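Handout, section B. The chain below has 266 residues.
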Amino acid sequence: MTSIAHKLLPAALLAAMILPAQQPSGAPASAQAAAQPAAAQPAPEPEVKNWRAGVKFSGQFLDLFDEASLNTFDSIPWRFTSSATTDISNRLGFGLTFGYDISRRVSLNLDVLYRRAGYRSGLEITEGEDDLDTIEDERKITSGFEQTKADYWDLPFTLRVHDGPASRRVRGFFEVGGALRHATSIRTYTELEQPGQGGSVDTTAAKPANANVLGAVVGAGWDWRTSKGINVVPQVRYTHWMNPVFDSARTRSSRNQIEFMLGITF
């Protein structure tokens, strides 16, 4: 028995050393899986509301009135009239802006913008002829000016197509639509001076040819959404008005409008 024990003891010791080192085939795989980090999941898109409201500022590139001069002559009686019109409008405008997303890339937008328009027209009327055989000037010369100011309310309504969803931080857009312009609060100051007489003043307001006009609108720009959820929207817009607001022999409103605009919405 002693000899058998001596033979079995080394075999038992060898088995005790080998068996603990061996593990079931599934154990290392589960341990490795637990040690490895989970696969990165795509971040969900930030939640963005589908409507916006804010303020908008506008800067005009073109005059609101065509600058022109006009000379007329009548031989019976002898009368020469000369006039020149210049634009005195404020090229800056401001107002409110609203937007509503009807899909991931399409939105409706409405602006309510105010701007102050105006013109100044100088006038000189010469009546009669000068007799060169006399020292005095027999002509009657009347000079003066007319200054008119008006408030314009513009309501452009556009369909805006973006190149990405609202969740993107920066996305470009193209827009088309129409606009309504309403002219109100027209104020006119006219002053005439005749030789040998005092100056005369008239404050009768000039009558517009079209107090309400429609226009066609196209534009393009960028919509930049900040981390605070504020949208900054710079853009360029062109409007062609179907009719001029003022339209007379001396004064005519411009029918083309190009402006740079900056909107801030919340």
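Note. The first helix runs from residue 2 to 18. Compare this with the example in section A.
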